[in-house]
Amino acid sequence: MRKNRVRVLLLAVAAACIVVAANQIVGRAEYFLYQGKASLELGHYEDAIARFDRAIQLRPDIAVGHVGRGAAHVMSGRYSEAIADFDQALLLAPYHVDAYYYRGAAKSKLKLFEAAIADFDRAVRLKHDHADAFAHRGNAKTCLGLHQEALADFEEALLYEPDHAGAYYGRGVTYMRLDQNEDAIVDLDRALQLQPDNAGAHIFRGYAKATLGRYQEAIVDYDQALELQPGHVSAIFHRGLAREKLGQFQTAIADYDQVLLSKPDHAHTYFHRGLARANLGRFQDAIIDYDRALQLKHDYAKAFISRGLAKNNLGLAEGAFADLKAAAALNSAKTAMDSDGGIDSEGLVRQLWFGQY
Prior knowledge:
The chain is mostly helical.
């Protein structure tokens, strides 16, 4: 009888020890989880990942740990790893709003816009006033050319959060894509009032102003963008275009030189540097640039025309005629004459919009 009592007592002690150990593990997991969240908020992403790793090792079923680590992966540019974390979080907690939202953001960074929209759809179904999800869904739709649907999303975001800088920014860019540049500038003004350090908003406002012929104002925007994000290639290139339009050819050439250090195979930059050099009477140098532009873009009708004009200025009538004839033979000649070209504007939209969450 006594042996039975001792056995029961030992089992009770063991059970109590198991409970205490389990509570300790839970406590330690929550401790690392708390530390991970703090590091994430401070922008210490590598440290945050390490803390979330430890929490997940202690409690593999902790969904919020996977969400936190996924968010840190997104901020660190590890989008595939982030998606894997959000997938795991949703297996553990199928209605976790942040997991859908951040997974959509990660998919957007990978240009998986349809899949991203599906995740944002789920996020707003679970949280109907999720302003960030509406704004990011609008950005994804604009990248797919669904401009009217995007505008509706930005309106929803601003309905729930009237001072949402990202929604004003996204709607401004969408207006610009619809050639509603005055409306674009109004929205980008508001975005910059709310978020003065948004280099992308300065760049797109510069585009809109340049399209309206307000080149000096555009240059101011590009300068401000470059103060915030030095070396931004598109800002430098478009500042060169604006300077070229104002007849500031030497400074335009300096901008194009800088662009070509980063993008040595960009045909439009060679072409525009050629134009600036030609306007300074440096026709031989201009021809060298047009040659390079045509090596990179064989159907560049505008480059054929400009090279022909430069050759004509040097008295090379035969070569000039051949270039003008080549331009005339290109079906894209009229289109080329109407377009300045740019540096992957679609990719720039994605880069600027999905850099913040």
